[in-house]
Design goal:
The chain is of the alpha/beta class. It contains ten helices and seven strands. Helix 1 (15-26) runs parallel beside helix 2 (42-51) and helix 3 (65-78) packs parallel to helix 4.
């Protein structure tokens, strides 16, 4: 069905992006797999070989408007029209408002929000001219529910959710379908790298945060152990968003994420969700 379909995916050097590139290639899509630094393509190449598929790997730095335009123009020149875009590139940073300086917050926003904004803005005129297209963006449960010590990350993901929800009805009138895919805990190198890079932010603080952070991250590890998914699990949901006719606006990737979202939407005050996460900061009762 999709042998003549072409999909561009951002952030494919590891994790969800890598799994999605291989999964869609196996499903018959012509995959253009992009990443900021193509010297990091070895894992994707190995996974594609193991699956018996080929992908077209190209550089794309989502924080550079010029690089985005050059990359997309090059894909359409060399390969043909982009039928679908999967916005997956992302950056994480742990810390509450007091812990992160402006440079750290801007780095998270530049990748997670402006990167999505600018790549989407680059493909939309081309899709609009053809009267068809799909834009699927990987956000997070952190784009629906704010979570402790993820202030900048959740802010960026909330912004993407608002952007896509606002865009969806307008795009649909132009023949373009917009969806967001919202994973919860996923076992990827992205999560490990974020934890490692953020360790110094919270380590050894004596300002009232350190004990809360230690308890929260311990409970987060328990959540990952119980509810964590694989990149392949999320890739299957992304494929569903690409083939559903018509697609939903939102795709939640697990029962755990769905239960949290239902709890939030059922309580317009927001108090229930605050209590859920406040409980993860408290010391267990003896």
């Amino acid at each position: 069905m999709h042998m003549d379909r072409r999909v561009l995916i951002t952030g494919t050097s590891s994790g969800i992006g890598l799994a999605t590139a291989v999964h869609l290639a196996q499903a018959g899509w012509q995959v253009v797999a992009t990443m900021r630094d193509t010297s990091r393509r070895a894992s994707l190449d190995a996974a594609a070989r193991a699956a018996g598929v080929g992908v077209d790997v190209r550089p794309l730095d989502v924080t550079s408007v010029a690089a985005i335009e050059d990359s997309i123009a090059g894909v359409e020149r060399d390969c043909g029209p982009i039928d679908a875009l999967v916005n997956n590139a992302g950056a994480g940073r742990v810390g509450s408002v007091e812990h992160l300086d402006d440079a750290a917050v801007r780095q998270v926003m530049d990748t997670n929000f402006f990167g999505v904004w600018n790549v989407t803005r680059a493909v939309l005129p081309r899709m609009r001219a053809r009267g068809r297209g799909r834009v699927v963006t990987v956000t997070s449960i952190g784009g629906l529910i704010g979570q402790p010590f993820n202030d900048a990350y959740c802010a960026a993901k909330f912004a993407v959710e608002g952007m896509m929800e606002a865009l969806a009805p307008v795009a649909r009138e132009l023949g373009i379908h917009v969806s967001v895919v919202e994973p919860g805990p996923v076992h990827t190198n992205f999560v490990q790298a974020t934890r490692q890079a953020s360790a110094d932010v919270l380590a050894g603080r004596q300002d009232g945060y350190d004990a809360m952070a230690a308890r929260y991250f311990e409970r987060s590890r328990e959540t990952f152990a119980t509810h964590g998914q694989t990149g392949a699990d999320v890739a299957a949901v992304i494929q569903q968003a690409l083939v559903d006719d018509p697609p939903h606006l939102r795709y939640l990737t697990s029962p755990y994420v769905t239960a949290l979202a239902r709890r939030k939407y059922a309580d317009v005050t927001g108090d229930g969700i605050v209590e859920v996460f406040a409980a993860r900061l408290k010391a267990p009762r003896s």
